[in-house]
Known about the structure:
By secondary structure, this protein is α/β, with parallel strands linked by helices. It has 5 domains: 6-109, Ubiquitin-like (UB roll) (Roll), CATH 3.10.20; 131-207, Roll (Ubiquitin-like (UB roll)), CATH 3.10.20.880; 217-353, Nucleotidyltransferase, domain 5 (2-Layer Sandwich); 372-408 and 542-648, no CATH class; 410-532, no CATH class. It is 29% helix and 21% strand. It has 18 helices and 29 strands. A 6-stranded mixed β-sheet has the order 14-13-12-15-17-16, with helices on both faces. A 6-stranded mixed β-sheet has the order 28-27-18-19-20-29, with helices on both faces. Strands 2-1-7-3-6 form a 5-stranded mixed β-sheet, covered by helices on one side. Strand 10 and strand 11 form a beta hairpin. Helix 8 (363-372) packs across helix 15 (606-618). It is globular, with a radius of gyration of 27 Å. It starts with 5 loop residues before the first strand and ends with a helix.
Amino acid sequence: MSQDPLVVFTPSGKRGRFAVGTPILTAARKLGVDLDSVCGGRGICSKCQVTPSYGEFSKHGVTVAEDALSEWNKVEQRYDDIRGLPKGRRLGCQATVQGDVVIDVPPESQVHKQVVRKRAEARDITLDPLVKLFYVAVEEPDMHEPSGDLERLVLALKEQWDLEDVKADLHILQGLQPVLRKGEWKVTVAVHLGDDENPPRIMHLWPGYYDGAVYGVAIDLGSTTIAAHLCDLATGEVVASSGLMNPQIRFGEDLMSRVSYSMMNPSGAQEMTDAVREGLNALFTQIASDAEIDKGLIMDVVVVCNPVMHHLLLGIDPFELGQAPFALATSNALRLRADDLNLSVHHSARVYLLPCIAGHVGADAAAVALSEAPDKSDDLVLVVDVGTNAEILLGDKTGVMACSSPTGPAFEGAQISAGQRAAPGAIERVEIDPATKEPRFKVIGSDLWSTEPGFDVAIATTGVTGICGSGIIEVIAEMRMAGLVDAGGLIGSPEQTGTDRCFADGRTYSYRLWDGDSDNGPIAVTNADIRAIQMAKAALYSGARLLMDKRGVDAVDRVVLAGAFGAHISAKHAMVLGMIPDCPLDKVTSAGNAAGTGARIALLNRAARAEIEETVRKIQKIETAVEPRFQEHFVNASAMPNAVEPFPILRSIVTLPDPSFNSGGGDGEDGGRRRRRRRG
């Protein structure tokens, strides 16, 4: 007897089998997928738009045929004729299941809209952008000294502003003469001042004096989210910040899944290139709308990203990054035209990509190095950019080393049973009373703890919908401090822990964090959740420890947590889990979105581009995949905080009970010590 077709939803990862003919919206509702609908499935509101993906998905174990959904119908055609559906989209209420299918729910179709927590950090930057405005008076044409209008404009720029050898694109020539005459031979010229590869170039002309602004965008192109900061190039002010989910996520949540997709599908790399460029263009439209400007005024773009995203943005198949020796097509900084990447900003706009450091240490790590400047530090600093792929820098004035570590998406709520991305209603802070084992928590969108009066009213519109990355870090660390989970990651039974919040869940136990309400069921932390976090944090710590080995040290002076997620991590909870090395808590700081800050520095200061290119050449690259001790550190770091490293500073601040639930009983103090000796 054949099985019903399998429907897999991304980015949630929820899946189930449904009979042929089941509407996608119905399947989503039955699985609890966050898919919006206001019109009750009549094809009017269009809020249930979804994007089906076709081809082979090894991660999900399915191959999606072209006829996996029902054919485009009259309702969809009518809506498309009147309002327009983006290419590749279907209405979830109209498209029905015909075969195994992977369905992406775009951010705008989700009820709980994504909060992209990447913001522009306040930073002193010496303002010296590459695009500047120059007001000039141009000599009128003369019968006795014939020369072209462009030549006289270039001469005016040289004589009045000392700009040498200025060039112009064809579109400037096409509109030059009417602009000069309308301005009565006085014009404002936007000039890209040039760089190591390009001479100065006229980008735009306005008749007379233009007193408006021109803009640049600094983009942090992450595996999961894309963040952009729109800057006034004359003042350096961040006039708008915006972000969206990386549309490539439907091809795989982690980088290696995307590399695999490109390997398994002949057109896979091009599909992902098209997706990320469309996402960037949507972001340009969004941020220009937020700032109420014409996106044609965006004349300079700086992009930082990891190597896989770097290659896919450029239209380069990332195949070689999927296997040793992880060769980049190029690691140098790139200076391109926006037209080269089909980006919908000013047609003469330039795009600068910071250099990559090594095979899996990208331009985002270079941007972190530019922002945090470990090469200028007197003390030994460990900089950790926490994300789906963590970039780690260790160094001081005497030298800097870098590596990457594949932490995966667990820190961002993926692979967690009740996990979700940071959105209103997500649990983000947790405390557990070590005596009563009772929890309290905060959710995004409310400042009240769950035990405080008014909490239910404060969350009435959002509810409690799941646990985001910072929440899962805190709850597991709190469980460890309350004696609910042992160092090896096992949750105890009700008898062992003294609370019925721990309940049997298959062959292991889970901890009930929230009892649920009429709208949402209970939220629990499972042993599988803890295992996912253990694997992620072990990868993170092992990368840091490997750099410390190479440096010949057992401790660092300070730790900087960078990245959108890193900005929300509690240093104490991170250390309880063993995510970062033992260190005084006051020496653990957050740099916020340091990669985005580095991109903004490179956007607003042209000398910074040469600086980071020189810095990157001096950074020593360590490839974790070929280092024998990485696996040893990984095994030790799977324990919380660590199987062999004592963490004396942490233990002077925090009491860590030492039960051993694996042996099945008691306080397990001896068993905990025996297990540490065996691993050591």
